[in-house]
Amino acid sequence: MSVILRRTSAEPHRFVSRFDTRTAMVIVSASGALPLLAIALMSPTFLKPGAFPLLSAIVAFTAVTVLSAIKIGRLTDTQFAILGSGGMVGVAVSAYLIADPSGTRAVTSMLAVVPAIAASGSPPRVTAGLTTASVLLATWLSVLTLSDSGLAVTFVAVGAAVTAVLVPVILIAALRRSLLAVNGRLSVLANTDPLTRLLNRRGMLSQVEALLDKACNSRGQLWAYVVDIDHFKAVNDSLGHAAGDRVLVTIADALRHATDRTGSQEAIVSRIGGEEFLVLTELQPRTPLETAILERVRSECDVTVSVGSVTVDVRASLDPRLSFGVAGESPHVEHVIDTIMHAADNALYDAKTSGRDRASHAGAVLVTWEAHTPEERGELAAEVVRRAMP
From the CB of residue 208, how many other CB atoms can be counted at a distance below 10 Å? Predict the structure, then answer.
């Protein structure tokens, strides 16, 4: 019985989670226009003579809009623009069909809804287009309904209608820009090691999926390098943690310079532990990257490093030649990184035991991966970051 209750209680949550905020607001705002038909039936003088059939058609379109949004779940920008434009035209015509001018003005104010929704989550071009259409419709209605009231009254009405559209759009757009800026700064803080300014593990995980996707689609390889500072504990113990921090910063700078010098500018360079760094690249440098790292550290730093490297063969998880793993199931990115790290750590151990200040290569390791589209990758990145949080 308890299982049934838990499943039932989860159903509303799953239904609501199908919709993003923009689609949900379209459903709510469009549903608000449906009672107009009932009001027209209860009050015959509510509409202008002969307007009922046209209002019925508008309400039918509104119902189709609501049902379409519910079925789709998450409207694309094009779908939103089409349904939003149709909805605004429906609002404008409905307002014109109302016999009482005060009722017309009340319904005209609803023209501000769609541009405001657009400003909350649509590209600027969509927001600008819908806002322009809303302003033109509001102006047309004001001029049409108040043309007999004199130029001054019409001018004031047009100004009020346009202001009612523009103010919410400008305010919401400004708030959205501020929120995006804050989120961007928070993302940098969450994904960056504050000392070295390299990616931390969380930031590395959020970027490595694109690298795996590209290698999987091209049936290519990746190269991974684990870099560990030799005798780092002795540096901290003898010179202090401030000196240790300076060493970490100089090593990070050396890694950046080495990747740039070898043509690996797009490599993912991250600090994944106290004195341990990980470099992932999709291109085999002309000069071996481990050699460039060792030479740069020797010339610029007061310490040495050991490097463990591994070649990563990335294959699609549905590749029939692969005889292991679950068919159709791609390992999570953390598992792939752990597999790569395990192999590279073995090579690092060999470099350490062979005298340090050198590199060792572990050969090739095979990983399976299911490539994702950019949209799927964006959704999965949020899950990766959530799982990486302590």
Answer: 23
Residues of the chain where predicted confidence (pLDDT) is lower than 50: 1-10, 12, 319-330, 384-385, 388, 390
What pLDDT is recorded for position 246? 95
Write out the two tokens for 256. 């950046």
Can you tell me the distance from the alpha carbon of 371 to that of 70, in angstroms, rounded to the nearest whole number? 29
Residue 283 C-alpha from the chain's centroid? 27
| pLDDT value, residue 359 | 96
What is the radius of gyration, based on Cα positions, of the chain? 31
The β-bridge partners of 313 are 221, 366
End-to-end alpha carbon distance in the chain = 35
Rounded CA-CA distance 311/283 in Å is 11
The rounded distance, in Å, linking the Cα atoms of 80 and 65 is 10
DSSP state of 46: G
**192 pairs with which residues across the strands?**
199
pTM tops 0.85, yes or no: no
Q: What is the pLDDT of residue 142?
A: 83
Q: Delineate the domains of the chain, giving CATH numbers in brackets.
A: 2-190 (no CATH), 201-388 (3.30.70.270)
Task: Give the separation between CA 237 and CA 222, rounded to whole angstroms.
Answer: 37
Residue by residue, what is the 3-state secondary structure of 226-254? EEEECCHHHHHHHHCHHHHHHHHHHHHHH
Residue 334: other Cβ atoms inside 10 A:
14
Q: What angle do CA 63, 69, 72 make, to 5 degrees?
A: 135
Burial 137-152 (b: 16+ CB within 10 A, else e): bbbebbeebbeeeeee
Tokens linked to 197: 């300014």
Give the pLDDT of residue 378.
55
Element (H, E) at 163: helix 151-191
Q: Which residue has the tokens 């009340």?
A: 106
